Amino acid sequence: MRIYGLDRLKFIAAIGVVFLHTGAFGTLSLSLNDIMANGYLRMAVPLFAILSGYFFTTRDKPGKWLPWVLRIVLIYLGLMAAYAPFWLDQVHSIRGCVNLLVFGYFHLWYLPAIACAAVATHYGARWRYFDWLVGVCALIGLGLQYQMIYHGGVNPLTFRNGLFFLLPFFFIGYRMATWRLVVSGPLVLASLLAVLVETCLVRATATPPYSHDILLSLYVACPVVVAWCIAHYRQRDCAPNAVYGTSDFIYFYHVLAILCLRMVGWWEGLPMAVTVILLTITASLIYNGLRKRLWRPSASPD
């Protein structure tokens, strides 16, 4: 059930994550960067989660779902090892080490969280009250986050995890695979406008500095955008595109590129974002090309 056109959406989301972590819009305007970093760029991770849930329906079968989850865990452990030089000095106790491995270093939290969401969905999706339970998880995540923004005293890890953040979006994508949603262009624009309005409301009422991962409007805007893209690209036979297929590599290795560039004193902001994007796309294309060349299965003899 591969829809190659959705690679474009994942690619845009991955670019958004790079812009978020480099503060790219700060080069143009601090106000614009504040609105983007706490608004539209926050759509990226929910979009990834919804798409993962959508395609998990093809893997949620005996003998398929568990290897998929274990593969995610192995990839996560490999990436944690690759980033070890940057997080080892942050660990000062066994408890700290366990905490870091459970929640992940920086952006790598996504992998254990998505694995958690997949396991919960596999075991809970057929329970008649699971939809309500997921809704409660979403409300708890939103509540904890807004408690942190307006009153403080909340560790971001309490809501930035697989249960209160990724599970609701993952499960929305899982359900969308069986829905036949009709989404119009005006509805997409209206949902995106809602994200902007909520972002501006929080900016006007919260005391800086503040940051958030979840917006209430994302629970409307992200599924609507995904539904529109699915309907749009199902009607068009999009061929696979090598550049659009680099989104995973960009997401998981862009932080490594940022850290290395900062070691050599590279320019921050927009120049950093553009350089990181070009480096990760190039590295991904080289890696994919070598993998196809080295691991291409040989033809079986007649």
Describe the structure.
There is one protein chain. The chain is mostly helical and 302 residues long. The protein has one domain (6-292). The chain is built from 13 helices and no strands. The chain has helices at 6-22, 30-37, 44-56, 65-82, 84-87, 94-103, 110-124, 130-150, 162-176, 185-205, 218-234, 247-263, 270-294. Helix 3 crosses helix 9. The chain starts with 5 loop residues before the first helix and ends in an 8-residue tail after the last helix. The relative contact order is 0.16.
Properties at a glance:
302 residues; disordered C terminus; single chain; 0% strand; mainly alpha
Short description:
With 302 residues, this protein is mainly alpha-helical. The protein is built from 13 helices and no strands. The chain has one domain (6-292).
* Beta strand %: under 5%
Distance between the termini: 30 Å
Helix content: 55-70%
Number of domains: 1
How many helical elements?
Answer: 13
Any chance you could write out the topology, listing elements then pairs?
Layout: H1 6-22, H2 30-37, H3 44-56, H4 65-82, H5 84-87, H6 94-103, H7 110-124, H8 130-150, H9 162-176, H10 185-205, H11 218-234, H12 247-263, H13 270-294
Helix pairs in contact: 1-3, 1-12, 1-13, 3-9, 3-11, 4-7, 7-9, 8-9, 10-11, 12-13
